[in-house]
Design a protein that fits this description.
This protein is an alpha/beta fold. It is built from 11 helices and 8 strands. Helix 2 packs across helix 3. The model has no long low-confidence stretch (mean pLDDT 90). Strand 4, helix 6 and strand 5 form a beta-alpha-beta unit. The protein has an 8-stranded mixed beta barrel with strand order 1-2-3-4-5-6-7-8, surrounded by 5 helices. It binds ligand C2E and magnesium ion (3 copies). The site of ligand C2E has 25 residues, from strand 2, helix 2, helix 3, strand 3 and strand 4. One of its GO terms (molecular function) is cyclic-guanylate-specific phosphodiesterase activity.
């Protein structure tokens, strides 16, 4: 009896896997078509200073078509299929162009943050793509922040390390994204050239809960580590004014989250800049 039950659950398991494979194949095909149709566009989420001026933005890919998944689902497919090289390069180019315009029209706007996949970092030509994009739009390298997520795929490989070091020599700043959630959080601090540490939103979201004493301790410790390493700290996932205040007290340099704004279209970001970049009209004056 035990054996029979075993084999039937094994069959169910096989069917599940077949289902999943079919879904993956479908999605891979749709992603490929979406790229060809230019359905992937950057949205922007403001990054604010401690006194709530918009000092930058993070570009986040969105798939502009009905019933499409978010980046957490489609980016792994793009990586698997190598599509992220083409999409990422286009993204660099377009987003830097937009950021250069914002910088010309809004004095407080200092930097644009772009997520970079490990697949892109493995490309020989990645550094020259970045240089080309900066030169095409006349954006100073110091205005670009590349966000790199800890992952199993990227380790202290010599070519990747050399590329990161060269980017930094140019003046590009490097941020370690999702800090604290990865596989080797602390060891990254040992080998990676870095300027900014982004505390993962899972830690920041917890600060909104009751009895968050232990979570505050963890975040405080992360910020102390960052300071000891000479890194600036950005807190993502700020959803309430209370958490914004806590993060400022703990010493975060810049803040990002739904409390300030969700990721929005390029036009909506331009409007946000018009209304929220002067010290007279800081973000969320009413709720603070
Ligand atoms: P990430 O780089 O850590 O981006 C932050 C994510 O947190 C975004 O999710 C953003 O929408 C979300 N977020 C921001 N504020 C809040 C908040 O207050 N509360 C909550 N609950 N969430 C908040 P999104 O846009 O779904 O992106 C997911 C991930 O996909 C990104 O995480 C990034 O790793 C990746 N990604 C997005 N765009 C790109 C891209 O152009 N290239 C690459 N390589 N990866 C990208
Ligand atoms: Mg990011
Ligand atoms: Mg990330
Ligand atoms: Mg993150």
């Amino acid at each position: 009896h035990v054996r029979e039950r075993g084999s039937s659950s094994l069959r169910r398991f096989d069917a599940d896997i077949a289902d999943q494979l079919e879904r993956r194949k479908q999605l891979a095909l749709r992603v490929r078509q979406g790229v060809a149709r230019r359905e992937f566009v950057p949205f922007f989420q403001p990054i604010v200073s401690r006194n709530r001026n918009i000092v930058g933005a993070e570009a986040l890919l969105r798939w502009q078509a009905p019933d499409t998944p978010g980046p957490a689902e489609f980016i792994p497919y793009m990586e698997e299929q190598g599509l992220i090289r083409e999409v990422g390069r286009q993204m660099l180019h377009d987003v830097i162009h937009t950021a250069a315009r914002w910088r010309r029209t809004h004095e407080s706007f200092q930097s644009i943050s772009i997520n970079v996949s490990p697949v892109q970092l493995r490309e020989e030509a990645f550094v020259s793509h970045v240089i080309q994009a900066l030169e095409a739009s006349d954006l100073p390298a110091g205005c670009l922040i590349l966000e790199i997520t800890e992952s199993l795929y990227i380790s202290a490989e010599k070519p990747v390390l050399d590329r990161l070091a060269r980017l930094r020599q140019l003046g590009v700043r490097l941020a370690l994204d999702d800090f604290g959630t990865g596989y080797s959080a602390l060891s990254y601090l040992q080998w990676m050239p870095l300027d900014i540490l982004k505390i993962d939103k899972s830690f920041v979201l917890k600060l909104a809960e009751e009895h968050s004493g232990r979570d505050i301790t963890i975040v405080r410790a992360i910020i102390q580590i960052a300071q000891a390493c000479g890194l600036a700290v950005t807190a993502e996932g700020i959803e309430t004014p209370e958490v914004a205040s806590i993060m400022c007290e703990l010493g975060a340099h810049t803040l990002q989250g739904y409390h300030f704004s969700r990721p929005v279209s390029e036009d909506a970001m331009t409007s946000l800049l018009h209304t929220h970049t002067t010290p007279e009209v800081p973000f969320n004056t009413l709720t603070d």
